[in-house]
Design goal:
single chain; 210 residues; mainly alpha; 5 helices; 78% helix; 0% strand; rod-shaped
C-alpha cells in the first residue's frame, strides 16, 4: 500500500533524464524498504513470519536489481551518444578530406585527425558492445528476480521490476537504432573515401592504410 501511494506521486525529480518512463524506481523501492525496516523495531518477534521475511528480502533484492538495471541503461545510452558523436566527427573529417584531395598539406593534417578519431571511436565501440552483452545478463537477472518476488508474495515488486525492464528495453532499442543508422552513414562516407583513394595515382598518404 505504501509503495502504491509513492508510485502515484510520480517519479523523483532529476533522477534520470534519458527517459520519462524510466524514472520510476530504484529509489522508490529503497524508500519503501527503509520505511519497513524503521517499523520493524515496533514489530513483535511473532510478527516476523516466513512470509513477512520473504517479502522483505524480495524488496531488498528488487531494489538492488532495479538500481543495477537503471545504471546499466544510463551507461548504455551515455556511451552510445559518445560513440555516435565520434562517428559523426569522423564523417565530417572524411568529407572534408575528400573535398581537399590534391592539397597535400591539408590531406596530411586531416589524415592525422581521422586516425586519432578512429582510435577513440574504436574504444567507444568496444565499451558499447560490452554494455550490450551486459544487458543480456541484466535482463535475465531482472526476470529471475521478478519471478522470485512474485512467488514470495511480493507482487508489487514483481510488477514494478517488470515495468522497468520493459521501459529499459524500449530505451535501448531506440538508442540501438540510432547507433545503427549513424554507423551506416559512416560506412557510406568511408566507402566513398576508399574508392577515391584507389583512383589516386600519386604517392600521398592513405588514411585507410595508416
Amino acid at each position: 500500500m505504501i509503495l502504491r501511494q509513492i508510485l502515484r506521486k510520480g517519479p523523483i525529480k532529476g533522477h534520470c533524464k534519458f527517459s520519462p518512463k524510466f524514472r520510476l524506481v530504484p529509489q522508490i523501492l529503497l524508500v519503501y524498504c527503509a520505511s519497513d525496516v524503521s517499523k520493524n523495531s515496533e514489530i513483535s518477534p511473532q510478527a516476523l513470519t516466513h512470509e513477512f521475511l520473504l517479502k522483505q528480502s524480495s524488496g531488498i533484492a528488487a531494489s538492488a536489481v532495479a538500481q543495477l538495471l537503471h545504471y546499466t541503461v544510463a551507461a548504455y545510452v551515455d556511451i552510445a551518444n559518445n560513440y555516435m558523436k565520434m562517428l559523426n566527427k569522423q564523417i565530417s573529417l572524411t568529407e572534408e578530406f575528400l573535398s581537399r584531395i590534391g592539397d597535400t598539406s591539408a590531406e596530411e593534417k586531416l589524415s592525422d585527425s581521422i586516425i586519432g578519431c578512429r582510435i577513440e571511436t574504436k574504444e567507444l565501440k568496444e565499451k558499447f558492445s560490452n554494455l550490450e552483452s551486459l544487458m543480456v545478463y541484466i535482463e535475465e537477472l531482472v526476470n529471475s528476480t521478478t519471478q522470485a518476488s512474485f512467488l514470495a508474495g511480493a507482487d508489487y515488486y514483481s510488477l514494478s521490476l517488470c515495468e522497468q525492464l520493459n521501459a529499459a528495453k524500449r530505451e535501448i532499442q531506440t538508442t540501438k537504432k540510432s547507433v545503427e543508422t549513424t554507423e551506416q552513414d559512416y560506412l557510406s562516407v568511408e566507402l566513398q573515401a576508399i574508392e577515391k583513394e584507389r583512383k589516386k595515382k600519386d604517392k600521398g598518404g592513405n588514411i585507410f592504410s595508416k
